[in-house]
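Revision sheet: C-alpha cells.
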Amino acid sequence: EVQLAESGGGLVQAGGSLRLACVASGFTFDDHGIAWFRQAPGKEREEVSCIGSNEENTYYLNSVKGRFTISRDNTKNTVYLQMNNLKPEDTAVYYCQHRGSRGQGTQVTVSS
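Predicted:
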C-alpha cells in the first residue's frame, strides 16, 4: 500500500521560508518520481513541482521558479520542497503525490 506523509507546513510572514518533507512507503522509492501539488480555498489544485527518479529531472510552476527547490533523499524515502521568499499567494494546503496516491497534506499560511 502506497503511503505518503507530508510535514513542515506552518505560518510564516511574507519573505520567510519553510521546508516541506514527504516521506513515502509502499513502493520502490528510488525508481519513481514524486510531485508536490497545492490547493488554496476556492482555487483549483495546481502542480507546484515534481522530481523524477533522476534528481536532475525537475519541474517548477512558473510562479515558484527561483524561490522553491525540490530535492530527494533516497536513503530516507523522502522528497523535500524548500520554499524561500514566500508570498501570501503561496498560502494553500500542500500535498505530495505518487500516481494516484497522495498524503493528507500540510497547511502553509503566509501572512502579509
